[in-house]
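Exercise 4. Each item below gives a protein and its sequence. For each, produce the structure-token representation.

Item: Threonylcarbamoyladenosine tRNA methylthiotransferase (Urochloa decumbens).
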Amino acid sequence: MEDIEDVLGPAGLAGGGAPPGLRLPLSTVAVKPKRRSSRVAQTPPQPEARIPGTQTIYVKTFGCSHNQSDSEYMSGQLSAFGYAITDEPEGADLWLINTCTVKNPSQSAMTTLISKCKNANKPLVVAGCVPQGSQGLKELEGISIIGVQQIDRVVEVVEETLKGHEVRLLSRKTLPSLDLPKVRKNKFIEILPINVGCLGACTYCKTKHARGHLGSYTIDSLVGRVKTVVSEGVREIWLSSEDTGAYGRDIGTNLPNLLNAIVAELPVDRSTMLRIGMTNPPFILEHLKEIAAVLRHPCVYSFLHVPVQSGSDAVLTAMNREYTVGEFRKVVDTLYELVPGMQIATDIICGFPGETDEDFAETVNLVKEYQLPQVHISQFYPRPGTPAARMKKVPSNDVKKRSRELTSVFESFSPYQGMEGKVEQIWITEIATDGVHLVGHTKGYIQVLVIAPDSMLGTSADAKITSVGRWSVFGEVIEGSVVVGEAPKQTSSELQKEQKQNQVEEAGCCGTDSCGTCACSDAVQHCSPEQCGNTPDAPQTSGDVDRQEAIQSTLVRRNVEGSTKASESIAASPLVGKEQQVNVVTRRGVSVDTILWCVLAVSFAVTVALLVLLTGKISSTPSY
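Answer:
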């Protein structure tokens, strides 16, 4: 079938089309109905006529945060048009699968889900990198598909698919608008794509086939989006991209310019934090000092994902990664030196074609040397259509053996050892998968699990680290330390202008520190990256750090939250600047045995009362 743009009439895209984010009239959409078999004698049943926008859509997402953002935008548009979005596939009227093409397993999962959808006789739309990068894939025959740069037209595709038509919308065009309706998976986290595609040509990468060449959003459009989401109460902004470091090279700017523009708009009370996305070494090397200054900013997590992929220069050359191991070391060493508490994550591919035992040993030594807290280890998967797929493969047994060995080395590290007893400020945005803990992150984006009421979601607080695990640490929220960010009336840029106007008045009041904070004021005002040197280390406290909550008691606390809510008190003091201090009162645990005995006692009392009442009625009845 032709692309839908290829069969539009004069009023369609060939004639100028609609601006990004606007829905074209259905009259301009040309589709081909699915062919009916001539062997079927009787006419097959027609799809049940329903009012468009009243159906339920199941949305499933595979892959990276960029894909998640695309799904949130598609869900937002569908929801705005009246469709209901669900996580339950059984009751949905149509399935929308947003796919990932990075590895074989993710594409296999997509294939399995497509089969389930067909067996359930559900209408199906497949979006994302798989249909964009592998348009002729057999599994996609007879299925409506939508490309990565056409997500602003998802409503049209869904409507036509529900009518029984097959629609294909794959042509690349201008970038989708950032102001489309959006339904966030987590209302406190905004995933903000700053560009699509990349400038690389890695020999193993299939994503380049789907996302294409670098295309960056303008700084003005991104800053405008940041202002919008901050006003909506978002507490974390994730900058997402196939290569964050390459941002702006196609439009005459660069990543530091964007980051400085964004942090100038973040609330000065630190209620909204910024997380910088994955960046490959080549495009961050020339901006290391500027990036380090941004990572030191109080409103930016001191965390960066820098994939190395291999510790061997020979393998990196075969991958066409365009950097050396020495340049990766320079990135890591510089950031560790300039940014206090810096945390770095990386990726490793085991068993790339041509990798020798000596090459792999260099990778193991690199991992042992830096002992990074997060290393994403994967086996090499040949992706169809990539140069690496044609290279001589390493025996699969060797690939698996190397993957297991490197994983064993990595899991032997204790990256968070020594944090016990420390007090760290954390930003709480999620409920843990165990349903018991809330998830917070330190300035270095270390995951901290705390037991606290759900009302603390979207707040920050000081937490004392009580124990450390391999992947995260456990902590206790310090009472009276919770900060609830108010809707910002001032941003960092506005604050700096005001400070310049009031310098004489502030000097008359008292002395100021290097960041421009009034030394006798309760107002918390943080400096810009240019003003700041190093941020102070979190204070340390001593005491009993061995106390652990039993899993059973924590589960009970979750279960009885409703019954104990009336006895909880969250006392709010007057606003201080932009902040509000809240006293956290630990929930009072209720014994399961106590609850059961109370229920039995009440049941017994009711039974006795009924027997007494019945006996009285029988005795008062006259006999004949």
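Check: The chain has 17 helices and 23 strands.
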